[in-house]
Design brief:
Structural class: mainly alpha
Number of helices: 6
Order of helices and strands: HHEHHEEHH
Helix content: 55-70%
Distance between the termini: 96 Å
Strand content: 5-15%
Strand order of the largest sheet: 1-3-2
Oligomer: single chain
Radius of gyration: 35 Å
Largest sheet: 3 strands, antiparallel
Number of strands: 3
CATH topology of the domain at 84-151: Arc Repressor Mutant, subunit A
CATH architecture of the domain at 84-151: Orthogonal Bundle
Shape: elongated
């Protein structure tokens, strides 16, 4: 006898004459199907375990790499923050512009400067931040020279 209605996984209308045999048959087919899906072998468990190991290894490598990168960045940031202000000419050389151009753009780039007598000094950290933020051209050799000069300074408590 044909089953009437649509089976949606929750309930099934019985056969057209009201007998419950059709419902039980469909439920048995559904149970059999679910048991076949849940049938687990040792090989499938081993494959799943190996894929989880690989995923976990990749995740740990990524996290440890990020932590190492953060430590290096923090150490570099600390070194830059500890550096004394650089002269006007050095800041202009670093950005590849004249001292007059630097004087014109220092507010736009939010550079921190201080005037000591007739000399103007700039903090290095805001200059490096402006280079990243505004994608400015800069001279790597000047930055290396400034960092080397700072490393050669003696540490005073």
């Amino acid at each position: 006898m044909p089953v009437s209605g649509v089976w949606r996984g929750m309930s099934v209308m019985g056969p057209s004459k009201g007998r419950g045999g059709g419902v039980n048959a469909l439920q048995n087919v559904y149970k059999c199907h679910m048991m076949m899906q849940q049938q687990v072998t040792l090989e499938s468990l081993d494959r799943k375990l190996e894929s989880l190991r690989v995923l976990l290894t990749r995740l740990l490598d990524t996290v440890s790499g990020e932590n190492a990168g953060r430590r290096e960045t923090k150490e570099k940031r600390d070194v830059v923050a500890e550096m004394p202000p650089i002269r006007n000419v050095e800041a202009a050389d670093l950005l590849g512009m004249s001292t007059r151009q630097l004087q014109r753009v220092r507010r736009r780039y939010r550079l921190v400067w201080e005037i000591r007598g007739r000399e103007v000094f700039y903090q290095l950290a805001p200059i490096l931040h402006a280079i990243r933020r505004f994608n400015l051209c800069w001279n790597a050799t000047v930055l290396d020279r400034l960092m080397d000069a700072h490393r050669s300074l003696p540490y005073v408590r």
